[in-house]
Here is the input.
Amino acid sequence: SDAAAEFDLTVSYNVEYEISGLPEWISWTRNNTVEDAENPGLSIDYITFNVEESDTPMRNATFTISDPAGTASFTVSVSQLREGIQTGIIPDRNMRQALADKKWIELIDPTNNSTEVIIKSEEEIREIDKYYYYIFNVSSADCSSIEGVEYFTWVTNINLYGNPNLKEADLSGLHNVTVVQPMNCNNIERIDCGDNSCTISLGGSYSSKLLTITGTNVSAITGNDPYASGPASFDITGCPNMKTINLTGRSGINAIYLTSSQKESVIITPDTIECIVKDN
Here is the structure.
């Protein structure tokens, strides 16, 4: 909150210490000192830090508690956010940086690489990225995870181009996606589309032995490309409304796992791909 606040710390010590780097908007008071009953020779200070009211949306501070010689120290980070700002957790560092560069998010504590970030609203992103606000784009960001994509509830296109370390894309927290593009996510093994009414648009080549696609409303896979290969096989048994799969020209595809009802209804091109029934 941007209102005045306080937080407490306890410090155990056997030599005097100092607090350095505090900004003007944080002050501190030593409330009490006691002897540490479990560790003779140590004292414990109970300290309250007071944070003044802020007139800015966000401000950060980092301060240090150490002995005078600096041989032992620890760092404390403080972030003060205006009430009503949406925050979220994005674990993957590269995804955070890609979205921060696009100004879709704001890093709360860049110095310490915090996973908590400020999520910009749809209205803010429309202003910042007015032609592409509907595309979640982390192309060539080298993401290993896209956890946090669910904060951007309005997006309709997912562009994952060129993330070779991405093995799973969970889109089940979204509901408006129409196109998923995992082009050149060479090692991707699973795409969970949840209830999105979407198509999977393949591009480039894949090294994965099996790509499992799930989603109640996935209707098509397009990947016809005479210069591309893989994945070696697909499992679409979790896509009850799949209608068409077009992999014309794409090499290195050995099989498609599907249900008996899908085998009767899904149009697969070319028809030389082996279809293996896998009913649960």
About this structure: The mean pLDDT is 93. The first strand starts at residue 5 and ends at 13.
